[in-house]
Amino acid sequence: MHWIIHLEGGPRRVNHAAVSVGDKVYSFGGYCTGEDFETTRPIDIHVFHIVTCRWKKLPVSTQSDPDYQCVPYMRYGHTAVAVGEKVYLFGGRNDSEGADNILYCFDTTTLRWSCPQVTGATPPARDGHSLCVVDDNLYVFGGYEQIADCFSNEVHKLDTTTMHWRLLPARGHPARWRDFHSATAVGSKMLIFGGRADQLGPYHSNHEIYPNYVKVFDTVTLRWSEPEVKNRALIEGRRSHSAFAHGGHVYIFGGYNALLEKHYGDMWRLDTEKWEWKQVFPLNPGPCARRRQCACVIRDQVVLFGGTSPCEFGQVGDLSNLMDHSDVYILDFGESY
Known about the structure:
By secondary structure, this protein is mostly beta strands. It has strands at 2-7, 17-21, 24-28, 45-49, 54-57, 79-83, 86-90, 93-94, 98-99, 104-107, 112-114, 119-120, 126-127, 130-134, 137-141, 144-145, 150-151, 155-159, 164-167, 182-186, 189-193, 197-198, 208-209, 214-218, 223-225, 242-246, 249-253, 256-257, 262-263, 267-271, 276-280, 294-298, 301-305, 308-310, 322-324, 328-332.
């Protein structure tokens, strides 16, 4: 495992959403310090080709486009996943429109947006949630609900063949209410790690908790479980990290813990058979400590880009002194070390 490419000059984005389709990574929205967070302009899309290692910004939709009414507004804290050649985007917010709960679909072959007609119990508007795919079904977990003004710990399922939403029953002991966690699909299971929780459960009291345990949701039995994971004490709880699956393992990188006033630049591997954490050290220099970046898997490589870090000369805990990144790193799993 080693870092093979480091590039600068890409889109400077924080709290964006990205997916891989074929040889390309599609990045949607997010923000950069100094931008207008209240804009209602159409969301922007940047495409990275892993073969050419070049970025391309797609044309921004205009009112004359036939799909203009189905183009999401610029946002952050949203999620996106790919099912075949289609990308589904859900949730997120900006400082003008707030959060929304419309499901958007972007076709990577036609480069057009649509708003699929859905039925059932649509999840309330939120941001900071997770979205993952198991057998072409979408699973939304957690996040911060705008109308209820609280954290969520519910699981909503969307069947992409029928476009029907369903609020799933909670069997076992559900994961705690939280936002900016990660949800990673391994087989038929969804693994939840990290995020920001609160001592008052669903309510935000500024008494934050950063859980470092793993919760597992079985999409077949609809039951929650919490495996005993070795070396759990070694990994600190965090939010706004990246998580991805490769070879049956779950990897996490980066993140932030407000209680410790700490940004992370470490990488950990969770063996989902032995249930054991192990810190891994890829060869060659890698990304600096950061949060709110994206990481997408393309075969045996991971494209990691964006996010934000403390400025080199900033004081610890000073979140007004952050630097947004425009870099790209590619991690290669071709060899094991």
